[in-house]
Write a structure and sequence with these properties.
With 258 residues, this protein is of the alpha/beta class. It has nine helices and ten strands.
């Protein structure tokens, strides 16, 4: 059967003909050796003949290659429609503030970061929205975002307490996650998040300490890497929250090269 390469493969070349491969459709990631990269390139050209090769089997398992023709765009569009018109699930991204204590050089907000809090009027509006759709709702998921959401922890706690009470009374599944820089994520804060059903936390560490501190300092210019790492270490032994560490691909590339 003819093999087809995924449209969503991102390849980062490394030394010795190796390659870091990532598939943005399914999240698959792999470190390819030279023979795997050569097989993949042959498949893209339509010249790879040994379809039963173990290398091809691995590429298929990772979602980098499909047996036969697969319309990924049609699958993606159908998934989008399923999520968009699914009235049983609501997923909200809430930013308690767009303020931040970091001065990342690539931040979309630039240098002039406002430190406003979400107003009571907006909070009431979010609550009203949830109430209006609750008749058909089976699951409510909140993604806490920012800015840096932990700068306004009280807003997060108050809204979470309301959502949990509201959903529990109506047998609606409630859970949430958070994207944070991790600087204010002390064990005490983590415990508060855990009881409010924050199941997962994503933290950004831009590679090695020197790379990270040059790109993600405090607004005062002070480094942040050690402080964040110490927070993570102190929490993992006390609070059962799942952590994921987001690292920029360019930093991964530099680290692997060296």
């Amino acid at each position: 059967m003819i093999q087809t390469a995924s449209l969503f493969n991102i390849l980062i070349p490394l030394k010795n003909m190796r390659c870091l491969a990532y598939n943005s459709f399914n999240g698959g990631m792999a470190l390819w050796e030279a023979h795997e990269l050569q097989a993949y390139e042959s498949i893209c050209k339509g010249t790879y003949l040994n379809e039963n090769d173990e290398t091809v089997t691995d590429l298929v398992k990772g979602g980098f290659v499909f047996p036969g023709n697969v319309d990924e765009m049609a699958i993606l569009f159908q998934q989008y429609r399923n999520h968009r018109f699914d009235r049983s699930t609501m997923i909200l991204t809430i930013a308690p503030t767009m303020g931040c204590n970091f001065d990342c050089d690539y931040c979309f907000q630039g240098e002039d970061k406002k430190n406003d809090s979400m107003s009571k009027e907006v909070q009431d509006g979010i609550i009203g929205l949830v109430k209006r759709v609750s008749g058909e709702l089976k699951r409510l998921h909140i993604a806490w975002y920012g800015g840096e959401p932990l700068l306004k922890l009280k807003i997060l706690e108050d809204l979470s307490d309301y959502f949990i009470s509201f959903c529990d009374l109506r047998s609606i599944q409630y859970d949430s996650m958070m994207v944070t820089n991790g600087y204010a994520l002390t064990p005490e804060v983590a415990r508060s998040l855990y009881v409010r059903r924050v199941k997962a936390i994503q933290i950004t560490l831009d590679g090695r300490q020197d790379d990270h501190d040059s790109r993600r300092p405090l607004r005062s210019g002070r480094p942040t890497f050690d402080h964040i790492l110490n927070n993570i270490k102190s929490i993992t032994d006390e609070v059962p929250i799942n952590f994921s560490i987001r690292v920029l691909c360019c930093i991964i590339y530099l680290s692997l090269e060296k």
